[in-house]
């Protein structure tokens, strides 16, 4: 299905995006950590170099001008290698060191004033170099351990990054799946809805077509002759019109879903609705009674939704009662909920049909042949409203005796 493809693509995009964002964040984090430890490590090393430098320059205040005997201070307390050069020639250092004088640098990196770092003979060095007149003082430290540790840190960060990317990939796959589930469901719902709707539209259209075809085939007949067929066409056209307007209502399901709460007087709302419906009812010799047992008539809920819900149920109750029927609207409340009962002594619903009445476009079979208009969407809207208000609705019905709808809405 095309729909599935679009959703799958979206899923993939979301997963990649999530993983990428986390990857970049982790990279920045890793760079920060690395930078922090790099600075920390070399700050200590450089401190050592300066300390050694101070020590030597103090000790050699005089001697510095005159070459010191070798072997004196070549290796400092912290493993520093020291060279003193005069006019570019090594005049001080271990005999050994003098021979292996660390030159030329394989990789030379000027870090900051006077300090360089380089590789030589497979080792890493950091060097402080100062020149005074014809003398040059070089203090060098082997930083293999530090470089090794930093390399290990990079390794650990890389592993961490891989692992976290893996974990993020899996979690984002799971979360994307979860978060797209309702969209998927509503998408499937839409497809079903369009299928249902077109099916519903087809029936009246088919009837209209067949009746009109029949009429066209009998050009000699008068309007009077065709009165029966024309009435049917008219009726089906009317049904079509109602269906279309109901469908339009359904496409505004957004409006059903979004909740807009306020405090309002429930008794007043029912009375307001009943003003219109009592007129309709009395034309058909039906009575609508209203009885409220509310302690607190003001409730905090979505007024428009409650109104819509009441209208759907009251409209049905009046529609599906016989002349001289009786309809009761009863309000009461319990600890946590408002209870609304809408009861009629009308035609009732067959037991095996009760489970279907909340389905879109469902109309009871026993309505066939009866001239009661409807498209079967009222109760499906009522159900959506109630579930959005986190309430619940129950039906009790006996065929030819009557129907009661019990609505509970949390306070
Ligand atoms: N109070 C009732 N008494 C008997 N049957 C009822 C009652 N309320 C609902 N029904 C049955 O449930 C079906 C679905 O009701 P619903 O309100 O969804 O649609 P409808 O009344 O047929 O059309 P509309 O969309 O115009 O309301 C009705 O067709 C009817 O068969
Ligand atoms: Mg209805």
Automatic annotation (TrEMBL):
InterPro entries: BphY/WalK/GraS-like, HATPase_C_sf, HATPase_dom, His_kinase_dom, HisK_dim/P_dom, HisK_dim/P_sf, Sig_transdc_His_kin-like_C. Keywords: Kinase, Membrane, Phosphoprotein, Transferase, Transmembrane, Transmembrane helix, Two-component regulatory system. Its main location: membrane. SMART domains: HATPase_c, HisKA. The keyword Transmembrane helix applies. GO terms for molecular function: kinase activity. Its EC number is 2.7.13.3. It catalyses: ATP + protein L-histidine = ADP + protein N-phospho-L-histidine. It is found in: Membrane. Residues 196-411 form the Histidine kinase domain. PROSITE patterns: HIS_KIN. This is histidine kinase.
């Amino acid at each position: 299905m095309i729909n599935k493809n679009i959703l799958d693509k979206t899923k993939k995009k979301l997963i990649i995006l999530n993983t990428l964002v986390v990857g970049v964040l982790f990279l920045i984090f890793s760079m920060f950590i690395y930078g922090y430890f790099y600075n920390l490590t070399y700050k200590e090393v450089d401190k050592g170099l300066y300390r050694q430098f101070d020590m030597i320059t103090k000790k050699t205040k005089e001697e510095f001008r005159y070459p010191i005997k070798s072997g004196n201070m070549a290796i400092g307390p912290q493993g520093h290698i020291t060279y003193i050069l005069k006019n570019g020639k090594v005049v001080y250092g271990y005999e050994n060191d003098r021979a292996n004088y660390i030159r030329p640098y394989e990789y030379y990196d000027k870090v900051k004033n006077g300090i360089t770092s380089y590789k030589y003979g497979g080792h890493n060095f950091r060097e402080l170099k100062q020149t005074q007149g014809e003398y040059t003082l070089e203090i060098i430290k082997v930083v293999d351990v530090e470089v090794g540790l930093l390399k290990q840190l990079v390794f650990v960060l890389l592993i961490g990054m891989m692992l976290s990317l893996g974990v993020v990939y899996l979690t984002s796959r799971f979360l994307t799946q979860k978060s797209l589930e309702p969209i998927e469901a509503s998408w499937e719902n839409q497809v079903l809805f369009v299928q249902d709707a077109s099916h519903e539209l087809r029936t009246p259209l088919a009837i209209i077509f067949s009746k009109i075809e029949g009429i066209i085939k009998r050009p000699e007949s008068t309007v009077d002759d065709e009165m029966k067929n024309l009435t049917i066409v008219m009726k089906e056209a009317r049904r079509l019109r109602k269906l279309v307007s109901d469908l339009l209502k359904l496409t505004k399901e957004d409006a059903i879903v979004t909740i807009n709460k306020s405090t309002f007087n429930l008794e007043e709302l029912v009375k307001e609705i009943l003003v219109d419906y009592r007129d309709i009812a009395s034309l058909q010799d039906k009575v609508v009674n209203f009885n409220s047992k509310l302690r607190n008539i003001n409730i905090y809920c979505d007024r428009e939704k409650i109104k819509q819900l009441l209208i759907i149920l009251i409209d049905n109750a009046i529609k599906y009662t016989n002349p001289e029927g009786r309809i009761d609207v009863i309000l009461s409340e319990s600890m946590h909920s408002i209870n609304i009962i809408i009861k009629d002594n009308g035609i009732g619903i067959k037991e095996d049909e009760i489970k279907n009445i909340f389905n879109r476009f469902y109309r009871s079979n026993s309505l066939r042949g009866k001239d009661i208009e409807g498209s079967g969407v009222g109760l499906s809207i009522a159900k959506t409203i109630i579930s959005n208000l986190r309430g619940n609705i129950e039906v009790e019905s006996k065929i030819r005796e009557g129907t009661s709808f019990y609505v509970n809405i949390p306070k």
